[in-house]
Amino acid sequence: MAARYSIVSLVRNAFGYHEGWQRAWRSPDPKERYHVVVIGGGGHGLATAYYLAKEHGVTDIAVIERGWLGGGNTGRNTTIIRSNYLWDESAGIYEKALQLYEGLSQDLNFNIMLSQRGVLNLAHNLHDLREISRRVNAIRLNGIDSEVLSAEEIKAMVPILNISPGARYPVLGGSLQRRGGVARHDAVAWGLARAADARGVDIVQNCEVTDILREGGRVTGVETTRGTIMADKVGIVVAGHSSVLAAMAGFRMPVESHPLQALVSEPIKPILDTVVMSGTVHVYVSQSDRGELVMGAGIDGHNGYTQRGSLPVIEHMVAAAMELFPIFSRLRMMRQWGGIVDVCPDASPIIGKTPVENLFINCGWGTGGFKATPGSGWVFAHTIARGEPHPLNAPFSLDRFAAGKLIDEHGAAGVAH
Length: 417
What we know:
Order of helices and strands: HEHEEHHEHEHEEHEEEEHEEEEHEEEHHH
Shape: globular
CATH class of the largest domain: Alpha Beta
CATH topology of the largest domain: FAD/NAD(P)-binding domain
Strand content: 15-25%
Mean pLDDT: 92
CATH architecture of the largest domain: 3-Layer(bba) Sandwich
Number of strands: 18
Number of helices: 12
Largest sheet: 8 strands, mixed
């Protein structure tokens, strides 16, 4: 009888109002002052607040978001996680993120639906094979799992993949990170928000920052559409709009904002149980738990702040997918979306101090921000709490562009989100 009642209640609430359901996190009005204000209620901002509270005992925090929680890139990505990056600096921070992901559901007591189904990068010519071999060796030297596969081994993993020698882009081999995979993007945001709220963090939505207040070269707070909020320290974590917030504080950032698109097909039965990427054909494909094929490619060439994108990019990624998977040719596209990414000249992020004292910034993740979410928040929390970067994010300072110490990850970030 109780089971029948619960089913009836669930159905009634599905089509009407949620009766008696507790909020997963509070929705408080902002206070006049906080010790730390984190601007940006996406995954990176929420992770920053959570780890500030958990690891550093800082609980007098406000996360302020101009829209709704997770409504930016966190809700507009393709959920892929991996740590197979070339350079030591990148390997360190992305591997930290992957390790945190592996325990995040238990840590947050919230199922983020982590699926370590593997991430496969394809090689289509001799240059690709040599570059993949170089990258796999570098990745393994950093203690991260990676291996080279032959075309036959790839075909055994993904039987529907076209590896015919007569194909326009024949598959000659590839690399595989078995610990890579996907996680539910909104679940990551919800889990972090609930856990941060439980530790006393205020999450303030529909609160747009209109100015960053300074006095004597030091940040003092922010002006918002919901009033002035004073703060001892401020962290900017607003993917896509980082240069806009930096301009409010009086300095420029070496970032460009671009739309990044993705799409999903109509749902089909399980047919693809790994993530397949190709930088040469320029597409990546995975299958969601609901059966949809999730596809993406590179950024739109133009700068912009739209969350749409352009038709040519969609046409290109679909054509590329057909090259690899002719079996998908009759599927219908169900929906398409875009996010706004900010890209640095070396395709690596900026995490650290700014020219304004006690104002910190975390930006420039380009097309790969979701996979870094917990690691990014973990090191940024350390930086804000201690006033100095953690060794993992020290190489990603803003000063590296003046010193010429770039961390060129274009090869890893070009299409391999």
